[in-house]
């Protein structure tokens, strides 16, 4: 019978600092502010004959690179139903309710998410990690993003059972 193991990757160095605002409705949003986000992961994989599963160092490096890609940016939800984002010279012009905001494009990332929340950041990072891990023999992956101690969102993927 196949044996599975669960690896947890919860490193202090897996973090990014970013500015964002959560959108609550068509008319309500937070003011722009920042967090030091922490990223952790759970990986379920088969244990081989020599007592070794997926090399966690591989996933540590991938998570680190994903964190670095978001670090020190303003993160905007490009797929929010409540805001419109246009490129205007060196800036992004964002229209939300009666607000008109401009962000320097080189300091800003437009992410394919519906809100700049921990639930959407974790889903985005999960997709990115799965793309980097294509071909790996994994059964489950969960990525969590915490905006501070005691508050986080997690997104999970599970391999579809075959041949039922
Ligand atoms: N479901 C979600 N709810 C909220 C999110 C989120 O990502 N998903 N995010 C926020 C805020 O952006 C963020 O948490 C700021 O909240 P705030 O309470 O002002 O400050 P802290 O995070 O620092 O929390 P403390 O408990 O005050 O330390 C809100 N909701």
Automatic annotation (TrEMBL):
GO MF annotation, one:
6-carboxytetrahydropterin synthase activity
Name the UniProt key words of this record, in alphabetical order: Lyase, Metal-binding, Zinc
Q: Which organism is it from?
A: Kineobactrum salinum
Check the record and name the InterPro entries matching this protein: 6-PTP_synth/QueD, 6-PTP_synth/QueD_sf
The metabolic or biological pathway listed in the UniProt record of this protein is: Purine metabolism; 7-cyano-7-deazaguanine biosynthesis
Instruction: Specify the protein name.
Output: 6-carboxy-5,6,7,8-tetrahydropterin synthase
The entry assigns this protein to a family as follows: Belongs to the PTPS family. QueD subfamily.
Q: What class of enzyme is it?
A: lyase
Q: Is ATP-binding a UniProt keyword of this protein? A: no
Q: From which domain of life does this come?
A: Bacteria
Q: Which PANTHER family match?
A: 6-PYRUVOYL TETRAHYDROBIOPTERIN SYNTHASE (PTHR12589:SF7), PYRUVOYL TETRAHYDROBIOPTERIN SYNTHASE (PTHR12589)
């Amino acid at each position: 019978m196949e044996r599975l193991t669960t690896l947890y990757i919860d490193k202090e160095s897996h973090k990014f600092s970013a500015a964002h605002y959560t959108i609550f409705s068509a008319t309500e949003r937070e003011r722009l502010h920042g967090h030091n986000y922490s990223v952790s992961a759970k990986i379920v994989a088969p244990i081989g004959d020599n007592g070794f599963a997926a090399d966690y160092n591989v996933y540590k490096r991938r998570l680190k690179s994903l964190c670095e890609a978001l670090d020190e940016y303003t993160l905007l939800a490009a797929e929010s139903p409540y805001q419109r984002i246009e490129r205007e010279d060196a800036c992004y012009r964002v229209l939300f309710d009666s607000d008109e905001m401009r962000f320097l494009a080189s300091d800003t990332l437009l992410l394919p998410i519906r809100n700049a929340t921990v639930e959407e950041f974790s889903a985005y990072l999960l997709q990115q990690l799965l793309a980097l891990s294509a071909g790996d023999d994994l059964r489950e992956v969960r990525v969590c993003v915490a905006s501070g101690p005691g508050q986080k969102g997690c997104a999970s993927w599970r391999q579809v059972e075959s041949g039922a």
